[in-house]
Design goal:
The protein is α/β, with parallel strands linked by helices and about 425 residues long. The protein has 17 helices and 15 strands. It folds into two domains: about 140 residues, Response regulator (Rossmann fold, 3-Layer(aba) Sandwich); about 250 residues, P-loop containing nucleotide triphosphate hydrolases (Rossmann fold, 3-Layer(aba) Sandwich).
Length: about 425
Protein backbone atom coordinates (compact mmCIF):
# COMPACT_ATOMS: atom_id res chain seq x y z
CA UNK A 1 0.00 0.00 0.00
CA UNK A 2 2.90 2.37 0.69
CA UNK A 3 4.33 4.51 -2.07
CA UNK A 4 7.88 5.82 -2.34
CA UNK A 5 8.35 9.57 -2.63
CA UNK A 6 11.31 11.60 -3.88
CA UNK A 7 11.70 15.33 -3.29
CA UNK A 8 13.80 17.90 -5.13
CA UNK A 9 13.97 21.55 -4.11
CA UNK A 10 16.49 24.28 -3.30
CA UNK A 11 15.51 24.67 0.37
CA UNK A 12 16.18 21.60 2.52
CA UNK A 13 14.65 23.08 5.67
CA UNK A 14 11.45 24.12 3.88
CA UNK A 15 10.89 20.63 2.45
CA UNK A 16 11.65 19.00 5.78
CA UNK A 17 9.33 21.35 7.66
CA UNK A 18 6.44 21.27 5.20
CA UNK A 19 6.54 17.65 3.98
CA UNK A 20 8.44 15.38 6.34
CA UNK A 21 6.24 16.55 9.20
CA UNK A 22 3.09 16.27 7.08
CA UNK A 23 3.64 12.94 5.30
CA UNK A 24 1.67 9.94 6.55
CA UNK A 25 4.33 7.31 7.21
CA UNK A 26 1.72 4.54 6.88
CA UNK A 27 1.12 5.59 3.26
CA UNK A 28 4.46 6.98 2.12
CA UNK A 29 8.13 6.09 2.36
CA UNK A 30 10.61 8.80 1.39
CA UNK A 31 13.20 7.56 -1.08
CA UNK A 32 15.37 10.67 -1.41
CA UNK A 33 15.52 14.41 -0.85
CA UNK A 34 17.83 16.40 -3.12
CA UNK A 35 18.67 20.09 -3.17
CA UNK A 36 21.05 19.85 -6.13
CA UNK A 37 19.87 19.27 -9.71
CA UNK A 38 22.70 16.96 -10.76
CA UNK A 39 22.32 14.81 -7.63
CA UNK A 40 18.59 14.70 -8.26
CA UNK A 41 19.24 13.30 -11.74
CA UNK A 42 21.64 10.77 -10.25
CA UNK A 43 18.99 9.63 -7.75
CA UNK A 44 16.51 9.10 -10.58
CA UNK A 45 19.07 7.10 -12.53
CA UNK A 46 19.55 4.81 -9.52
CA UNK A 47 15.83 4.15 -9.26
CA UNK A 48 12.67 6.17 -9.75
CA UNK A 49 10.24 6.41 -6.83
CA UNK A 50 6.48 6.18 -7.31
CA UNK A 51 6.00 9.91 -6.76
CA UNK A 52 8.17 12.96 -7.38
CA UNK A 53 7.46 16.32 -5.77
CA UNK A 54 9.68 18.86 -7.47
CA UNK A 55 10.16 22.55 -6.74
CA UNK A 56 10.67 23.88 -10.27
CA UNK A 57 13.42 26.31 -9.31
CA UNK A 58 15.75 23.45 -8.36
CA UNK A 59 16.27 23.01 -12.12
CA UNK A 60 18.44 25.13 -14.44
CA UNK A 61 15.31 26.18 -16.33
CA UNK A 62 11.93 25.10 -17.63
CA UNK A 63 13.39 23.26 -20.65
CA UNK A 64 15.64 21.09 -18.50
CA UNK A 65 12.76 20.41 -16.12
CA UNK A 66 10.24 19.38 -18.79
CA UNK A 67 12.78 17.24 -20.62
CA UNK A 68 13.61 15.31 -17.45
CA UNK A 69 9.99 14.87 -16.45
CA UNK A 70 9.19 13.55 -19.93
CA UNK A 71 11.87 10.86 -19.51
CA UNK A 72 10.27 9.36 -16.41
CA UNK A 73 9.23 5.76 -16.91
CA UNK A 74 7.64 5.03 -13.55
CA UNK A 75 7.29 8.11 -11.37
CA UNK A 76 4.32 10.47 -11.35
CA UNK A 77 5.28 14.11 -10.78
CA UNK A 78 3.80 17.00 -8.84
CA UNK A 79 5.48 20.32 -9.71
CA UNK A 80 5.61 23.31 -7.37
CA UNK A 81 6.08 26.63 -9.15
CA UNK A 82 7.48 29.82 -7.63
CA UNK A 83 5.18 32.78 -8.29
CA UNK A 84 7.54 34.03 -11.00
CA UNK A 85 7.11 30.78 -12.96
CA UNK A 86 3.30 30.85 -12.97
CA UNK A 87 3.09 31.70 -16.69
CA UNK A 88 4.96 28.46 -17.50
CA UNK A 89 2.24 26.29 -16.03
CA UNK A 90 0.81 25.33 -19.43
CA UNK A 91 4.21 24.22 -20.73
CA UNK A 92 4.86 21.95 -17.77
CA UNK A 93 1.29 20.65 -17.68
CA UNK A 94 1.70 19.28 -21.22
CA UNK A 95 4.14 16.61 -19.95
CA UNK A 96 2.25 13.32 -19.56
CA UNK A 97 3.95 12.31 -16.29
CA UNK A 98 2.87 15.52 -14.53
CA UNK A 99 -0.21 14.89 -12.40
CA UNK A 100 -0.48 18.23 -10.66
CA UNK A 101 0.93 21.76 -10.70
CA UNK A 102 0.73 24.19 -7.78
CA UNK A 103 1.81 27.82 -7.72
CA UNK A 104 3.43 28.52 -4.35
CA UNK A 105 2.41 28.86 -1.62
CA UNK A 106 0.60 25.54 -1.64
CA UNK A 107 -0.87 23.33 1.07
CA UNK A 108 1.53 20.41 1.70
CA UNK A 109 -1.36 18.20 2.82
CA UNK A 110 -3.21 18.88 -0.44
CA UNK A 111 -0.07 18.25 -2.51
CA UNK A 112 0.60 14.92 -0.79
CA UNK A 113 -3.02 13.84 -1.13
CA UNK A 114 -2.98 14.68 -4.85
CA UNK A 115 0.28 12.79 -5.32
CA UNK A 116 -0.91 9.71 -3.43
CA UNK A 117 -4.08 9.64 -5.52
CA UNK A 118 -2.05 10.00 -8.74
CA UNK A 119 0.11 6.97 -7.90
CA UNK A 120 -2.86 4.83 -6.86
CA UNK A 121 -4.63 5.79 -10.07
CA UNK A 122 -1.61 4.90 -12.20
CA UNK A 123 -1.26 1.53 -10.47
CA UNK A 124 -4.88 0.82 -11.32
CA UNK A 125 -4.38 1.91 -14.94
CA UNK A 126 -1.39 -0.40 -15.40
CA UNK A 127 -3.31 -3.47 -14.28
CA UNK A 128 -4.91 -4.17 -17.65
CA UNK A 129 -7.47 -6.88 -18.35
CA UNK A 130 -7.66 -6.06 -22.04
CA UNK A 131 -6.50 -3.02 -24.00
CA UNK A 132 -8.99 -1.03 -26.01
CA UNK A 133 -7.21 -1.83 -29.23
CA UNK A 134 -8.47 0.22 -32.12
CA UNK A 135 -10.23 2.90 -30.06
CA UNK A 136 -7.99 5.97 -29.90
CA UNK A 137 -9.18 9.21 -28.37
CA UNK A 138 -9.24 12.47 -30.31
CA UNK A 139 -7.98 14.73 -27.55
CA UNK A 140 -4.68 16.63 -27.35
CA UNK A 141 -2.65 13.98 -25.53
CA UNK A 142 -1.55 10.96 -27.51
CA UNK A 143 -2.12 7.31 -26.75
CA UNK A 144 -5.06 5.25 -25.63
CA UNK A 145 -6.05 4.12 -22.18
CA UNK A 146 -4.39 0.73 -22.10
CA UNK A 147 -4.70 -0.47 -18.51
CA UNK A 148 -7.70 1.67 -17.61
CA UNK A 149 -10.81 -0.22 -16.62
CA UNK A 150 -13.76 1.08 -18.63
CA UNK A 151 -16.51 -0.81 -16.81
CA UNK A 152 -20.05 -0.90 -18.17
CA UNK A 153 -22.88 -1.73 -15.76
CA UNK A 154 -25.75 -3.13 -17.83
CA UNK A 155 -28.98 -5.05 -17.51
CA UNK A 156 -32.00 -5.92 -19.62
CA UNK A 157 -34.13 -5.51 -16.48
CA UNK A 158 -34.98 -2.31 -14.66
CA UNK A 159 -34.65 -1.86 -10.91
CA UNK A 160 -31.96 -4.49 -10.36
CA UNK A 161 -29.57 -2.12 -8.54
CA UNK A 162 -27.26 -1.40 -11.46
CA UNK A 163 -26.84 2.28 -10.56
CA UNK A 164 -26.44 1.45 -6.87
CA UNK A 165 -23.55 -0.88 -7.67
CA UNK A 166 -21.86 1.59 -10.04
CA UNK A 167 -22.11 4.39 -7.48
CA UNK A 168 -20.86 2.10 -4.70
CA UNK A 169 -17.81 1.01 -6.68
CA UNK A 170 -17.13 4.63 -7.62
CA UNK A 171 -17.12 5.63 -3.95
CA UNK A 172 -14.89 2.68 -3.01
CA UNK A 173 -12.29 3.52 -5.66
CA UNK A 174 -12.29 7.30 -5.34
CA UNK A 175 -12.70 7.76 -1.59
CA UNK A 176 -11.16 4.66 -0.04
CA UNK A 177 -8.46 3.81 -2.59
CA UNK A 178 -7.57 7.26 -3.93
CA UNK A 179 -8.00 6.10 -7.54
CA UNK A 180 -8.97 8.91 -9.87
CA UNK A 181 -12.43 7.71 -10.93
CA UNK A 182 -15.13 9.00 -13.28
CA UNK A 183 -18.76 7.83 -13.19
CA UNK A 184 -21.00 8.39 -16.20
CA UNK A 185 -24.63 8.26 -15.07
CA UNK A 186 -26.63 7.93 -18.29
CA UNK A 187 -30.17 7.09 -17.19
CA UNK A 188 -33.05 9.53 -17.81
CA UNK A 189 -33.40 11.00 -15.29
CA UNK A 190 -30.02 10.29 -13.74
CA UNK A 191 -30.27 8.95 -10.16
CA UNK A 192 -26.87 10.40 -9.26
CA UNK A 193 -27.90 13.94 -8.27
CA UNK A 194 -30.29 12.76 -5.55
CA UNK A 195 -28.11 9.90 -4.28
CA UNK A 196 -24.74 11.65 -4.46
CA UNK A 197 -25.90 15.14 -3.45
CA UNK A 198 -25.20 16.67 -6.88
CA UNK A 199 -27.05 19.10 -9.16
CA UNK A 200 -28.82 18.44 -12.46
CA UNK A 201 -26.53 20.99 -14.09
CA UNK A 202 -23.88 20.89 -15.42
CA UNK A 203 -24.40 17.73 -17.44
CA UNK A 204 -23.15 16.00 -20.57
CA UNK A 205 -24.90 18.74 -22.52
CA UNK A 206 -21.90 21.01 -21.83
CA UNK A 207 -19.78 18.64 -23.94
CA UNK A 208 -22.37 18.21 -26.67
CA UNK A 209 -22.60 22.00 -27.05
CA UNK A 210 -18.82 22.48 -26.97
CA UNK A 211 -17.01 19.23 -27.96
CA UNK A 212 -13.43 19.15 -26.78
CA UNK A 213 -11.43 19.55 -23.54
CA UNK A 214 -13.23 22.69 -22.33
CA UNK A 215 -16.71 21.22 -22.80
CA UNK A 216 -15.63 17.97 -21.17
CA UNK A 217 -14.28 19.69 -18.07
CA UNK A 218 -17.40 21.83 -17.82
CA UNK A 219 -19.55 18.66 -17.79
CA UNK A 220 -17.97 17.27 -14.62
CA UNK A 221 -19.35 17.49 -11.12
CA UNK A 222 -17.41 16.22 -8.09
CA UNK A 223 -18.85 14.61 -4.98
CA UNK A 224 -17.64 15.45 -1.48
CA UNK A 225 -15.81 12.10 -1.52
CA UNK A 226 -13.75 12.99 -4.61
CA UNK A 227 -15.67 11.04 -7.27
CA UNK A 228 -16.00 12.77 -10.66
CA UNK A 229 -19.49 12.40 -12.16
CA UNK A 230 -21.01 13.28 -15.55
CA UNK A 231 -24.77 12.90 -15.79
CA UNK A 232 -26.99 12.70 -18.86
CA UNK A 233 -29.08 15.80 -19.69
CA UNK A 234 -32.30 15.80 -17.71
CA UNK A 235 -34.45 17.31 -20.50
CA UNK A 236 -36.07 14.67 -22.71
CA UNK A 237 -35.53 16.65 -25.93
CA UNK A 238 -31.82 17.22 -25.24
CA UNK A 239 -31.39 13.58 -24.24
CA UNK A 240 -33.03 12.36 -27.48
CA UNK A 241 -31.11 14.86 -29.61
CA UNK A 242 -27.78 13.58 -28.27
CA UNK A 243 -28.83 10.02 -29.11
CA UNK A 244 -29.39 10.98 -32.75
CA UNK A 245 -25.74 11.91 -33.33
CA UNK A 246 -23.56 9.40 -35.17
CA UNK A 247 -21.08 7.59 -32.87
CA UNK A 248 -18.25 9.04 -35.00
CA UNK A 249 -19.41 12.65 -34.56
CA UNK A 250 -17.39 14.95 -32.31
CA UNK A 251 -20.49 15.69 -30.22
CA UNK A 252 -21.67 12.09 -29.84
CA UNK A 253 -22.19 10.07 -26.67
CA UNK A 254 -19.31 7.77 -27.65
CA UNK A 255 -17.02 10.77 -28.19
CA UNK A 256 -17.91 12.04 -24.72
CA UNK A 257 -16.76 8.76 -23.17
CA UNK A 258 -13.61 8.66 -25.29
CA UNK A 259 -12.79 12.24 -24.27
CA UNK A 260 -12.27 10.99 -20.72
CA UNK A 261 -9.21 9.02 -21.84
CA UNK A 262 -7.14 12.21 -21.86
CA UNK A 263 -7.53 12.81 -18.12
CA UNK A 264 -5.63 9.93 -16.51
CA UNK A 265 -8.55 8.19 -14.86
CA UNK A 266 -7.77 4.84 -13.29
CA UNK A 267 -11.42 3.83 -13.52
CA UNK A 268 -14.19 4.91 -15.89
CA UNK A 269 -17.59 3.57 -14.82
CA UNK A 270 -20.52 3.52 -17.24
CA UNK A 271 -23.96 3.32 -15.61
CA UNK A 272 -26.05 2.57 -18.68
CA UNK A 273 -29.83 2.51 -19.23
CA UNK A 274 -31.70 -0.80 -19.45
CA UNK A 275 -32.40 -0.48 -23.16
CA UNK A 276 -30.74 -1.06 -26.52
CA UNK A 277 -30.60 2.51 -27.75
CA UNK A 278 -27.79 5.00 -28.25
CA UNK A 279 -27.26 5.90 -24.59
CA UNK A 280 -26.45 2.24 -23.96
CA UNK A 281 -24.93 1.05 -27.22
CA UNK A 282 -22.54 3.94 -27.91
CA UNK A 283 -20.79 3.77 -24.49
CA UNK A 284 -20.53 -0.02 -24.88
CA UNK A 285 -18.31 0.62 -27.90
CA UNK A 286 -15.76 2.03 -25.45
CA UNK A 287 -16.04 -0.60 -22.68
CA UNK A 288 -13.44 -3.26 -21.98
CA UNK A 289 -15.18 -4.86 -19.00
CA UNK A 290 -18.90 -5.50 -18.50
CA UNK A 291 -20.84 -6.30 -15.34
CA UNK A 292 -24.35 -7.60 -16.04
CA UNK A 293 -26.46 -6.93 -12.96
CA UNK A 294 -29.33 -9.35 -12.39
CA UNK A 295 -31.69 -10.69 -9.76
CA UNK A 296 -31.27 -14.42 -8.88
CA UNK A 297 -34.49 -15.41 -10.67
CA UNK A 298 -35.53 -17.33 -13.76
CA UNK A 299 -36.38 -14.05 -15.44
CA UNK A 300 -32.91 -12.84 -14.48
CA UNK A 301 -31.35 -15.80 -16.29
CA UNK A 302 -33.33 -14.99 -19.42
CA UNK A 303 -32.43 -11.30 -19.23
CA UNK A 304 -28.74 -12.10 -18.66
CA UNK A 305 -28.70 -14.39 -21.69
CA UNK A 306 -30.30 -11.64 -23.79
CA UNK A 307 -27.68 -9.10 -22.70
CA UNK A 308 -24.90 -11.60 -23.28
CA UNK A 309 -26.00 -12.12 -26.88
CA UNK A 310 -26.07 -8.36 -27.37
CA UNK A 311 -22.47 -8.10 -26.16
CA UNK A 312 -20.99 -11.10 -27.91
CA UNK A 313 -22.98 -11.20 -31.15
CA UNK A 314 -24.86 -8.01 -31.97
CA UNK A 315 -21.98 -5.64 -31.15
CA UNK A 316 -19.33 -7.93 -32.62
CA UNK A 317 -18.92 -6.02 -35.89
CA UNK A 318 -18.28 -2.72 -34.09
CA UNK A 319 -16.40 -3.66 -30.93
CA UNK A 320 -15.29 -6.99 -29.54
CA UNK A 321 -15.78 -7.43 -25.80
CA UNK A 322 -13.97 -10.61 -24.81
CA UNK A 323 -16.09 -13.23 -23.11
CA UNK A 324 -13.57 -13.46 -20.29
CA UNK A 325 -14.28 -9.78 -19.53
CA UNK A 326 -18.03 -10.27 -19.03
CA UNK A 327 -19.34 -11.09 -15.54
CA UNK A 328 -22.62 -11.28 -13.67
CA UNK A 329 -23.44 -9.66 -10.34
CA UNK A 330 -26.45 -11.24 -8.62
CA UNK A 331 -28.17 -8.53 -6.61
CA UNK A 332 -31.07 -8.39 -4.14
CA UNK A 333 -30.77 -12.00 -3.05
CA UNK A 334 -32.99 -13.07 -0.13
CA UNK A 335 -33.36 -16.26 1.90
CA UNK A 336 -36.28 -17.15 -0.36
CA UNK A 337 -34.31 -16.81 -3.62
CA UNK A 338 -34.47 -19.92 -5.80
CA UNK A 339 -31.01 -19.58 -7.35
CA UNK A 340 -27.54 -19.52 -5.86
CA UNK A 341 -24.59 -18.21 -7.88
CA UNK A 342 -23.66 -21.70 -9.07
CA UNK A 343 -27.21 -22.82 -9.93
CA UNK A 344 -27.89 -19.51 -11.70
CA UNK A 345 -24.83 -20.00 -13.91
CA UNK A 346 -25.51 -23.70 -14.48
CA UNK A 347 -29.13 -23.14 -15.51
CA UNK A 348 -28.06 -20.36 -17.89
CA UNK A 349 -25.30 -22.46 -19.45
CA UNK A 350 -27.58 -25.47 -19.87
CA UNK A 351 -30.28 -23.43 -21.55
CA UNK A 352 -28.33 -20.88 -23.58
CA UNK A 353 -24.82 -22.24 -24.10
CA UNK A 354 -21.95 -20.04 -23.01
CA UNK A 355 -23.00 -18.01 -19.97
CA UNK A 356 -20.93 -15.42 -18.05
CA UNK A 357 -19.74 -16.39 -14.55
CA UNK A 358 -21.10 -14.80 -11.37
CA UNK A 359 -18.41 -12.63 -9.82
CA UNK A 360 -20.30 -11.78 -6.61
CA UNK A 361 -23.73 -12.03 -4.97
CA UNK A 362 -25.29 -9.23 -2.92
CA UNK A 363 -28.11 -9.64 -0.41
CA UNK A 364 -31.13 -7.36 -0.35
CA UNK A 365 -30.74 -4.75 2.41
CA UNK A 366 -33.41 -2.10 3.21
CA UNK A 367 -30.65 0.14 4.55
CA UNK A 368 -29.45 0.74 0.98
CA UNK A 369 -32.45 2.79 -0.23
CA UNK A 370 -32.56 4.56 3.13
CA UNK A 371 -28.94 5.64 2.69
CA UNK A 372 -29.63 6.76 -0.87
CA UNK A 373 -32.63 8.83 0.23
CA UNK A 374 -30.34 10.53 2.74
CA UNK A 375 -27.61 11.10 0.09
CA UNK A 376 -25.18 8.95 2.08
CA UNK A 377 -22.81 6.34 0.60
CA UNK A 378 -24.65 3.02 0.85
CA UNK A 379 -21.34 1.17 1.26
CA UNK A 380 -20.89 2.94 4.61
CA UNK A 381 -24.37 2.07 5.86
CA UNK A 382 -25.15 -1.44 4.58
CA UNK A 383 -22.39 -3.71 5.89
CA UNK A 384 -22.81 -6.66 3.52
CA UNK A 385 -23.13 -4.38 0.50
CA UNK A 386 -19.94 -2.58 1.55
CA UNK A 387 -18.08 -5.88 1.86
CA UNK A 388 -19.26 -7.05 -1.56
CA UNK A 389 -18.25 -3.81 -3.23
CA UNK A 390 -14.84 -4.03 -1.54
CA UNK A 391 -14.48 -7.60 -2.83
CA UNK A 392 -15.44 -6.47 -6.32
CA UNK A 393 -12.84 -3.70 -6.19
CA UNK A 394 -10.22 -6.19 -5.01
CA UNK A 395 -11.02 -8.42 -7.97
CA UNK A 396 -10.32 -5.75 -10.58
CA UNK A 397 -7.99 -3.37 -8.69
CA UNK A 398 -5.88 -5.65 -6.56
CA UNK A 399 -2.68 -3.73 -7.40
CA UNK A 400 -4.06 -0.65 -5.64
CA UNK A 401 -3.06 -2.40 -2.40
CA UNK A 402 0.33 -3.63 -3.58
CA UNK A 403 3.43 -2.55 -1.72
CA UNK A 404 6.02 -0.50 -3.54
CA UNK A 405 9.75 -1.14 -3.47
CA UNK A 406 11.84 1.41 -1.60
CA UNK A 407 14.41 3.37 -3.55
CA UNK A 408 18.00 2.10 -3.44
CA UNK A 409 19.53 5.46 -2.57
CA UNK A 410 21.68 5.87 0.52
CA UNK A 411 19.86 7.70 3.29
CA UNK A 412 19.93 8.99 6.83
CA UNK A 413 17.14 9.63 9.29
CA UNK A 414 15.27 12.92 9.63
CA UNK A 415 12.40 12.96 12.11
CA UNK A 416 12.39 9.16 12.08
CA UNK A 417 12.02 8.86 8.28
CA UNK A 418 14.80 7.63 6.03
CA UNK A 419 15.64 10.28 3.45
CA UNK A 420 18.31 10.47 0.74
CA UNK A 421 20.30 13.65 1.29
CA UNK A 422 21.97 15.94 -1.23
CA UNK A 423 25.42 17.34 -0.63
Amino acid sequence: MKITVGFAGPDLHQITREYVLTANSDQMSLAFLQTNWDLFLQSLAEGEPDLLIVYADVSPGVDALTQQLARLTRAMAIVLLPAGWADLQGTIESVDTVRGIYVLPASPAEVLKRGFSAVQTERARRQSISPLGEIVHKQDRSGGVVGTRVIAFVSSQGGVGKSTLAEGLGFELASRRNINTLLFSFDLPSPAPLRLDLRYQPSAQEFFAHPGPHGFKESIQKTNDGLDVIIAPCESYTYANAASASPEADHSIRSLVIASYAYNYGAILLDLPSCEEAWTLQPLLAANLVLIVSRPTLDGIRATAHTTRLLTENLQSNHRILKENIFVVLNQRTKHSTYTASSFHQRGANQYGWFPPVVTTIDYDPLIPQAQDAARPAVNVAEDFGKRVTSLADTFYRSAHSKSVNGRAKSRSILGIRIRMGE
